[in-house]
Amino acid sequence: MRKVKVAVAGATGAVGREMLKVLEERDFPVAELVPLASERSAGKPVEFKGHEIIVRRLAPDSFAGVDIALFSPGATVSREFAPHAARAGAVVVDNSSAFRMDADVPLVVPEVNPKAVELAVRPGGRRIIANPNCSTIQLVVVLKPLHDAAQLDRVIVSTYQSVSGAGQKGIDELEKQSRALFNMGEIKASKFPHRIAFNLLPEIGPATPNGYTEEEMKMVNESRKILELPDLRISATCVRVPVFYCHSEAVNLTFRRDLPPDEAREILRRARGVKVVDDLSQHVYPMPLLGAGDDDTLVGRIRRDLAQERGLSLFVVSDNLRKGAATNAVQIAELLLSDYPGALGALN
Ligand SMILES: NC(=O)c1ccc[n+]([C@@H]2O[C@H](COP(=O)([O-])OP(=O)(O)OC[C@H]3O[C@@H](n4cnc5c(N)ncnc54)[C@H](OP(=O)(O)O)[C@@H]3O)[C@@H](O)[C@H]2O)c1
Question: What's the gap between Cα 103 and its chain centre?
Answer without folding.
Answer: 20
